[in-house]
Each structure stands twice: as C-alpha cells, then as structure tokens.
Amino acid sequence: MKCVISVLGKDRSGVVAAVATALADCGANIDDISQTILDDIFSMTMLTTLDTEVADFNTVQERLEKVGEDVGMQIIIQREDVFQYMYKI
Predict the structure, then answer these.
(1) Kind and range of the H or E element at 63?
(2) All residues at 6 or more sequence positions from 36 whose CB lies less than 8 Å from its CB, including other chains
(3) Residue 70: how many CB atoms within 10 A of its CB?
(4) CA–CA separation, 12 vs 30, rounded Å?
(5) From start to end of 1-89, where are the E strands?
(6) Which of 1, 38, 42, 82 could form a disulfide with 11 if both were Cys (CB 3.0 to 4.6 A apart)?
C-alpha cells in the first residue's frame, strides 16, 4: 500500500532517523523523500510503500504518532489513493 507521510515542526537533529527507523521497523520502504528547512521550521514529505503483512496502516499510523510525540513534530500519514482523490474533487 502506498502512503504519503508529512512531517512538520521546529527543526532538530534526529527527526529523519527517527521516522526512517520507525518505518523500517514496520517493514515499510521509503520510495521518495523531500525535505526542507524554512527559517527554523522543518518540513518533510515521503512517499512510502507499506508491507501490510508486517504492519497494517493503523499500526504504522500509531507508531508514527508516537515518534511525533517523541521528537515534537506533527506527523501525518495518508493512503496515497485518498491523497490523490482529494485533488480530483
């Protein structure tokens, strides 16, 4: 299952590593990644493929919520098909 993950918050070290580690632990693959820092605000968008046999969408979402709390960032995961349909309406 393809998903889009958005990360936003005050810049600090270790954010990419924390998110990537959580995804790897869930068996997910990072297909594409874009990140930028605007002044002191960190923004990252990832396109990922979840291995639902290892961890389903809800499990990955819960894991990323925990990472977000730990690093002080907002992390949102959306199914790619839902993300795409939002812009077709």
Answers:
(1) helix 57-71
(2) 42, 43, 44
(3) 12
(4) 21
(5) 2-10, 29-38, 41-49, 74-79
(6) 42
3-state secondary structure of 88: coil
Which of 14, 68, 9, 4 has the alpha carbon at shortest distance from 38? 9
Residues shown for the chain: 89
Question: How far is the C-alpha of 46 from the C-alpha of 50, rounded, in Å?
Answer: 12
Beta carbons of 9 and 41 less than 8 angstroms apart: yes
Cα distance between residue 80 and residue 49, in whole Å: 10
Residue type, 6: S
Tens-place pLDDT, residues 32-55? 999 999 999 999 999 999 999 999
> Which residue's structure tokens are 């969408």?
57
Residue 8 in tokens: 């936003």
The model carries a pTM of 0.89
